Amino acid sequence: MKPETFSHTTVLLRESIDGLDIKPDGSYVDCTLGGGGHSQWICEALNENGVLVGIDQDDYALRYAKNRLEPYACQRYFVKSNFASLTKVLEGLHLSGIDGILYDLGVSSFQLDDDTRGFSYHNDGPLDMRMNQVADLTAEMVVNDYAPGELKKILFLYGEEKFASQIVKSIVKAREIKRIQTTLELSEIIKHAYPPKERFKEKHPSRKTFQAIRLEVNGELKILEDALIQGIAALKPGGRMCVITFHSLEDRVVKRLFKERANPCTCPPDFPQCVCGKKPEVKLISRKPISSGIDELEKNRRSRSAKLRIVEKLETES
């Protein structure tokens, strides 16, 4: 599929825009710009003094979003970078004190639908999976060059794949004959490594392995917590952060960090009052994750695993 034909359905759009509580003259960062779906609604709410910063690693996403957002009056900056470099991006734009930050994690629909990117196990394409297409590490290298123990660890930790041992054995056996180069080659190997009774029992047997390899290629979990910490630091008091996750590993990182920053006290529970002196940086706007409603689930299957968490920056004592 050629990228020019892609369509992108933005997940939890209204919920995340409401969560940002947008001020017309505020400054907002879309750390995962993608097709610009969330950013378009941010721009809709901003006046000519408002600022949008869109960050993405993908050149096509940046070009597409720039064209999509051209009609809007707000100031717009598009930066090719990873959200792990948020602080540097904002410093480079001479921006401080942001009113809202959005992270829509995972793979964009247009990346999944573009067979040449290698993210999908449904269609054939090269084993790539790079969000930044000039990065060195590819899925093909992970599958063919990683030691069996290292590959098993990735599948177990990043994919929570209970059949990791069987899958890795099958991958190693196949790559001894020739390098595994395409998504469907890998998907077939995974499918036949699964016990027959478990194949397609719930979801596609390749789902967890492809997720694990993608996370390894792009280092997503390694940079997530640091990126969120940078985001909290960049917020003004009263500024909001919205984070949309698509699997349990990401959501755990977000949930734990938000909980720690909202309730940092380390005093024993039986202490009558806090003596550790640690003050909360944020308050939880959504104590439980927000999920897609029935209408969205019916229209977009990819929204079924999406979870939105929201925090607001608190005023800190000087």
From TrEMBL:
Residues annotated for S-adenosyl-L-methionine binding in this entry: G36, G37, H38, D56, F83, D104, Q111
Subcellular location: Cytoplasm
Thylakoid keyword on record: no
GO terms of molecular function: rRNA (cytosine-N4-)-methyltransferase activity
Protein name, as recorded: Ribosomal RNA small subunit methyltransferase H
EC number, UniProt record: 2.1.1.199
Gene coding for it: mraW1
Domain of life: Bacteria
NCBIfam families, alphabetized: 16S rRNA (cytosine(1402)-N(4))-methyltransferase RsmH
Species classification: Bacteria, Bacillati, Bacillota, Clostridia, Eubacteriales
